[in-house]
Amino acid sequence: MRKFLSFACFAVVLSAGAFAKETVQNLDFSVPVDSRELDFDDEKFKKDLDEKSTSFDFDYSMMTINENGFSFVFGANVGFTSTKIENLVDDNFEGLDLGLKLGWGGLPVNTNNFLLAFHGFFGFGFRSLKLTESYVDYKATFFNIKLGADVVAIYRFTDTFGINASLDFFTNLPATGSVNIEGDNFDESYGFFCAGGIGVVPKVGVSLFF
User: Fold this and answer.
1) What is the spatial distance between Cα 63 and Cα 2, in angstroms, rounded to a whole number?
2) What would the pLDDT profile of 79-111 be if each residue is shown by its tens digit?
3) Is 89 helix (H, G, I), strand (E, B) or coil?
4) How far is residue 103's CA from residue 119's CA, in Å, rounded to a whole number?
5) How far is CA 174 from each of CA 55, 126, 147, rounded to the nearest angstrom?
6) Residue 61's CB: how many other CB atoms inside 10 A?
């Protein structure tokens, strides 16, 4: 299934680029902030717990500029995240943040020096987190599916170089995760469903035109 999804993403990106008048590759720094509700499947957790995250990521995205005014975007991000699971432990989990997104939209403004694009997108995310507190090791894994929209503004200095700023808005569709709690005399794992909440991703960076 993973191979199929990878091939499908590659095929979509390749076909979108083939029909593009021009492509823009954005290299950005971003600070994603989002929250979700965690619904554990074990009776030990009497109520749902809230999860809030702040990440510091590097983003790459490829955006097409088509003659008909449509635009396609493919993006990937990797970085560091700090995640708070309220009412589970006092400190924050820390670890790896990964993500992909695919989107389609339009270019209402496309001049020689300035571009403004909007896309609707869906995306996939993964986080691998760790925390040690009071000689107890906690490990958490999150998967998430995002549905959202973005706005991208690019100022073009030359035919090949510009700067950009963008903002993503999204909500999390239902997905799964797990928490492992390990001490000297015990090792417990709990699964959960996670969904809801909202997220925003402000980005700034440079743009290269091809």
Assistant:
1) 24
2) 999 999 988 888 999 999 999 999 999 999 999
3) coil
4) 6
5) 21, 13, 11
6) 24
CB count within 10 Å of CB 74 equals 20
DSSP state of 92: P
pLDDT tens digits, one per residue of 171-188: 999 889 999 999 988 899
In whole angstroms, what is the distance from residue 93 CA to residue 178 CA? 13
- What residue type is assigned to position 196 of the chain? G
> What is the Cα–Cα distance from 205 to 165, expressed in whole angstroms?
7
Residue 207 structure tokens: 């743009």
Q: Are 62 and 13 in contact (CB under 8 A)?
A: yes
In the chain, the N- to C-terminal Cα span, in Å, equals 32
